[in-house]
Amino acid sequence: MSYNDITKWMPYLPGEWKDEEEHKLKPINVIQLQLDEYEKIRRDELLKEVQKMEQLIYDNATNRTVFLQKGNPNFKNYILYGLLKQIKGFNISDFKILNEDTDFDKIDFNMLKNCSEIEQAAIILILIRNKFAHNQLPSSDCYQFCSKILTRDTEQTYANYYLKLFMILKDKL
């Protein structure tokens, strides 16, 4: 079995799968390739970046008790109270969404447009981390919002796109 037209599957393939002529003749399990790429990026890159970021915040924060929520470390608290308030000195009382008990699965992306660029970056960063930590991809609404921040290359997998976006937003904060 082979695919006659590989071009429509190219966004789902890892970057090294660029020779269309060669792959028109070979059977490709596109879903498996996308899952393998997702797991590799999730495990080996994105979650390790999250750990480095948490450690950096932990090491530089003055009040570490604010990182806990119900006795457990909480990434939103690391970003909001550790990075933005304690380390960067932002007035977090101005943040509209992050100061609420936010369900990141139910964020209204139209409302997010009214937030500051820093709050938007923090929310998307937290959302990407939460989704990857739970072995998921962000919603299509999130993708549409994020595509205004960073356009996905046609040959780029979604996992790679979110890793690149995470790194850009991390640097922005």
Name a few traits of the molecule.
single chain; 173 residues; mainly alpha; 2 strands
Element pattern in H and E: HHEEHHHHH
State the helical fraction. 40-55%
Characterize the biggest β-sheet: 2 strands, antiparallel
Mean pLDDT: 84
Tertiary shape: globular
How widely separated are the two ends? 48 Å
Low-confidence stretches: none
Question: What spatial order of strands do you see in the largest sheet?
Answer: 1-2
Number of continuous helical runs: 7
Structural class: mainly alpha
Write down the Rg: 18 Å
Strand tally: 2
Measured by DSSP, the beta-strand proportion falls in under 5%
Quick summary of this structure?
By secondary structure, the chain is mainly α. The chain contains seven helices and two strands.
Task: Write up this protein.
This protein has 7 helices and 2 strands. A two-stranded antiparallel ribbon has the order 1-2. A hairpin with a 2-residue loop joins strand 1 (68-69) and strand 2. The chain has 173 residues and is mostly helical. Helix 2 (30-60) crosses helix 3, helix 3 runs antiparallel to helix 5 and helix 5 packs across helix 7.
Tell me the layout of helices and strands.
Blueprint lengths: L19 H5 L5 H31 L7 E2 L2 E2 L1 H13 L21 H4 L4 H17 L6 H7 L11 H15 L1
Antiparallel strand pairs: 1-2
